[in-house]
Structures are given as C-alpha cells and as structure tokens.
Design a protein that fits this description.
With 88 residues, the protein is α+β, with helices and mostly antiparallel strands. It has a single domain (3-80), classed as Ribosomal protein S16 (S16 Ribosomal Protein, Chain: A, 2-Layer Sandwich). The chain has two helices and five strands, in the order ββββαβα.
C-alpha cells in the first residue's frame, strides 16, 4: 500500500482550509484518510501551518512520502519553529 502525506481541502467556497493527512494514494483527495497530522490555513496573514512533528516523523519512518506541496509546508514550519538556545 502506497501511503502519502498530502493536503485535504475543507472550508467553504472561496474560504479554503486544508488538513495535512496521511492517506492511501488510491483514495480521493477529500476522501478517506488514515490520520490527520496537521492543518494549513492559507488565508491567515501570514499563512498558518500546524503539524504534529512526532506523527509525521513516524509516518515518514514507515515509508510514507510527502507530496511536493506538503514537503514545502513542512520545511517552512520547521524553519519557523523556535530555536532552542543552549545555556552555558
């Protein structure tokens, strides 16, 4: 079974809101999914991305592949995370 991490559209007409989901590659875009691992709100200024980092790492470790768009969102979310400051 090919598993993908991809966007699933929600929200009203002209007000998009996306869920980042883990799903079988054969299921439809807004159809059945295995697990919801985050959200993406493009209408917020700046666009807001929330992710469950541990669950994404789990699924990637199991062989799931992120789509190009989700990979860009995850990269952006990782860069926006606060950096831990080492105290000496």
């Amino acid at each position: 079974m090919a598993v993908k991490i991809r966007l699933s559209r929600a929200g009203a007409r002209n007000r998009p809101y996306y869920r980042i989901v883990v799903s079988d590659a054969r299921s439809p875009r807004d159809g059945r999914f295995i697990e919801m691992v985050g959200t993406y709100d493009p209408r917020a200024n700046p666009a807001r991305v929330t992710v469950k980092r541990d669950r994404i790492d789990h699924w990637v470790g199991m062989g799931a592949q992120a789509t190009r768009t989700v990979a860009q969102l995850l990269r952006r979310a990782r860069e926006a995370e606060p950096k831990e400051i080492a105290q000496s």
